[in-house]
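Renewal narrative, Specific Aim 1. Our central claim is that a sequence can be written position by position from structural information alone. The example that follows is taken directly from our test logs and has not been curated for this report. It begins with the structure tokens describing the chain, in the order in which they were read.
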């Protein structure tokens, strides 16, 4: 009775072994990737899903650090028609965060303050569809994530963030924040002081520019007023109204303005009005004490040249002058000859003629067109000489 039982048991064992042997070449072909047509057909019939060694590296390449795959589930899907062997699957990866991640809260120069985003050990489920195609170079896997925004907003490891990273809430962050606040306050104070100095300098420059503009405007107005004043004086002195000419001349001579006095003097000496010219000469003589007299030889007497050289400089010294009647007192003379040595004189200014008499000499001069008094010097025993006084 035992033998039949043993025979049936042996038959069952033999059938199982044959079945295993028949299936073994199919599994080996899948693993080794045999390229024969028969193996491909057998592989397409036997393999129902994408192998884990092919999927996992492709998924890990798309995951940011420090995420890692803890578990991988592959559900076969119908593959689209293709001349090459293809497999489709729905992939679900259980992801675990390997380290804490952070988000940038703020940047302060070289320091980056971080906010914690996620703690280590956080679990997420990543889902995608996969299409694997077998070509001559091996398997090519295309992944289409079904949850593309799954890891958005979960930050990055601190080592991947720029600058000197400091986590908010730590003593280091507090100390750095206080130091940065002090530095910012210092910079603000320096900027405020610099702006104050710049505003103050700008205000000074503006005030100086306004003062210069005001000074230039005042000077311009003064020049214009001066031009108008001189033009008015010249107009009155050159006018036909004799009374106006006299009044303008007397006002100019009586004032303390040298320019107006000089202008009036020039106009009066060049005018043909003997009264105005007489007033100008009286004013000129009254303002001088020593007047040089230039002497020149005459062509009629050849010896006059020697006399001029020997006489030396002649000077008319004015000790007293009366503007009322033109009476003149003083000295006249030159050191060269005794007859012409300085001696007391009496003289008179009559309109535009000046006559001076001294011991043995007489000087007679008349106003010329070039603001000079021209005439003759006659001395006893000396030839007649030409004399000139320049009205400077």
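The sequence written for that structure reads:
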């Amino acid at each position: 009775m035992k033998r039949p039982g043993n025979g049936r048991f042996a038959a069952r064992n033999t059938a199982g072994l044959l079945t295993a042997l028949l299936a073994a070449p199919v599994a080996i072909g899948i693993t080794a990737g045999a390229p024969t047509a028969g193996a491909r057909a057998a592989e397409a019939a036997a393999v129902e899903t994408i192998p884990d060694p092919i999927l996992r590296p492709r998924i890990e390449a798309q995951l940011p650090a420090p995420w890692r795959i803890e578990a991988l589930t592959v559900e076969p899907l119908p593959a689209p028609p293709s001349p090459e062997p293809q497999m489709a699957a729905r992939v679900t990866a259980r992801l675990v965060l390997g380290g804490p991640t952070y988000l940038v809260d703020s940047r302060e120069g070289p320091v980056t303050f971080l906010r914690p985003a996620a703690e280590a050990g956080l679990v997420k489920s990543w889902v995608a569809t996969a299409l694997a195609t077998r070509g001559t170079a091996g398997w090519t896997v295309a992944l289409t994530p079904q949850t593309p925004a799954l890891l958005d907003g979960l930050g990055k490891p601190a080592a991947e963030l720029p600058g000197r990273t400091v986590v908010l809430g730590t003593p280091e962050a507090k100390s750095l924040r206080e130091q940065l606040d002090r530095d910012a306050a210092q910079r603000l104070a320096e900027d405020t002081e610099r702006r104050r100095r710049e505003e103050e300098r700008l205000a000074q420059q503006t005030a100086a520019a306004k003062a210069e503009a005001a000074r230039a405007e005042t000077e311009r107005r003064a020049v214009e007023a001066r031009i108008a004043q001189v033009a008015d004086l010249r107009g009155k002195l050159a006018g036909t109204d004799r009374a106006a000419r006299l009044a303008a001349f007397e006002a100019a001579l009586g004032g303390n303005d040298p320019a107006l006095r000089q202008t009036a003097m020039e106009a009066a000496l060049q005018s043909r009005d003997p009264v105005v010219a007489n007033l100008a000469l009286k004013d000129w003589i009254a303002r001088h004490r020593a007047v040089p007299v230039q002497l020149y030889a005459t062509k009629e007497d050849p010896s006059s040249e020697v006399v001029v050289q020997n006489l030396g400089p002649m000077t008319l010294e004015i000790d007293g002058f009366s503007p009322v009647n033109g009476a003149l007192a003083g000295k006249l003379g030159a050191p060269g000859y005794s007859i012409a040595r300085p001696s007391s004189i009496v003289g008179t200014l009559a309109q535009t003629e000046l006559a001076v008499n001294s011991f043995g000499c007489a000087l007679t001069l008349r106003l010329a067109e070039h603001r000079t008094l021209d005439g003759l010097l006659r001395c006893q025993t000396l030839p007649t000489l030409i004399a000139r006084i320049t009205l400077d």
